[in-house]
Design goal:
With 333 residues, the chain is of the alpha+beta class. It has 2 domains: 7-117, no CATH class; 129-331, Immunoglobulin-like. It has helices spanning 24-40, 43-54, 58-67, 74-82, 90-102, 109-117, 129-145, and strands at residues 7-10, 16-19, 155-166, 172-183, 188-196, 207-212, 215-222, 227-238, 243-251, 260-265, 271-278, 286-292, 300-305, 313-318, 324-331. The strands form 4 sheets. The chain has a 6-stranded mixed sheet, with no helix packed on it. Strands 10-15-12-13 form a 4-stranded antiparallel sheet, with helices on one face. The chain has a 3-stranded antiparallel sheet with strand order 5-8-7, with helices on one face. Strand 7 (215-222) and strand 8 form a beta hairpin. Helix 1 (24-40) runs antiparallel to helix 2.
């Protein structure tokens, strides 16, 4: 989904960026996100927020860098802001210092975040582009071990309601999913549930609970990528056109502080609702929804979400999902 903010970059007029007045609200949200990212990092989140706040396409950022005598490819800039790579070479560090000036950031703000990331306690707040690619390859291998394929499970999702629980330690404690599906071929008798834990999780210590109209079958895990795969068996064979409702849950709680929950969609589908509930002792400072056309693309579609109700929850609803990623991120203070 495209980002709501549109900017015109006037290079010929002293690199002045002109913004529509109608985008002031989005700009304010971008500025708040940037301020939070500069305080707490990590580096790639702060860089992405800074580029979004300035409204500069990566090609323009590259152009400005060349004016500072620094050559960096658009692909490298994309990798930096997604966390797939980190600037380390002297030329790359020169580019980071130039970016601070180009993006009108406080001196040493991005360099400081890079230095902090080099510490032994550093762990990225969210899964990087590279981690998602690795997890995708692992998923195909785990499905192959089960004699299954990710290409077509014979089911079309009509509705998917997911509730995520964040515990008192700010960890991803678990989630529950309620699916409404329709078979598009005869003989479908199972659904493959996939859970991606946060960085540092222990999939072998997670537990899957079949809650309604299904039972747990074979389970496969991959420790390095935090992927858990399990069969949910229906106990009946669906015919093409049949609908089916089932519910399951995953108990996690094995990783550190959680910062976001993301759901990937390989194809257009039905309705999706995501609710993230926070323990009363661990309420976030702010929440926002976001979208990404792909794991390598910049995030867009940002909108602030209220945390309310007895379960201290934030939610989003998509009446018809599109291919790509959709999620909720939150900041701690």
């Amino acid at each position: 989904m495209p980002h709501a903010t549109q900017h015109a970059d006037a290079d010929t007029a002293g690199t002045v960026d002109v913004m529509d007045a109608t985008d002031a609200g989005t700009a304010g949200a971008d500025a708040a996100e940037l301020a939070s990212a500069l305080r707490g990092g990590p580096f790639h989140v702060a860089l992405r927020a800074a580029i979004a706040a300035r409204g500069l396409p990566l090609q323009r950022v590259q152009h400005h860098l060349s004016r500072h005598g620094v050559t960096v490819g658009v692909t490298s800039l994309s990798y930096w802001q997604q966390g797939a790579r980190r600037p380390q070479r002297p030329e790359s560090l020169r580019a980071v210092r130039a970016l601070e000036e180009i993006l009108q950031l406080p001196e040493e703000s991005l360099i400081r975040l890079l230095a902090e990331a080099d510490g032994p306690a550093h762990r990225p707040a969210a899964r990087t582009y590279r981690a998602r690619v690795e997890a995708s390859g692992v998923l195909d291998r785990l499905l192959g071990e089960l004699g299954l394929s990710s290409a077509d499970d014979g089911l079309h999702t009509l509705g998917h309601h997911e509730r995520v629980r964040i515990g008192a330690r700010r960890e991803l404690a678990g989630r529950e999913a309620h699916h409404i599906v329709r078979a598009h071929r005869d003989g479908v008798d199972r659904f493959v549930a996939v859970h991606h834990g946060d960085p540092g999780c222990a999939p072998a210590r997670m537990a899957v609970h079949a809650l309604e109209n299904c039972r747990a079958g074979r389970v496969r895990v991959h420790h390095d990528t935090g992927v858990l795969v399990t069969e949910l068996l229906f106990g009946t064979r669906l015919r093409a056109g049949d609908t089916y409702l089932f519910r399951y849950g995953v108990e996690d709680g094995t990783a550190g502080v959680s910062h976001e929950y993301v759901r990937a969609f390989g194809a257009a589908g039905g309705q999706y609702a995501l609710q993230v509930g926070f323990d009363a002792a661990a309420r976030p400072a702010r929440c926002r929804r976001f979208t990404q056309p792909s794991a390598a693309a910049p995030r867009g579609g940002r909108r602030e979400l209220a945390v309310s109700g007895p379960h201290h929850s934030a939610h989003l609803v998509e009446t018809r999902v599109r291919p790509g990623l959709l999620g909720i991120a939150w900041d701690w203070e």
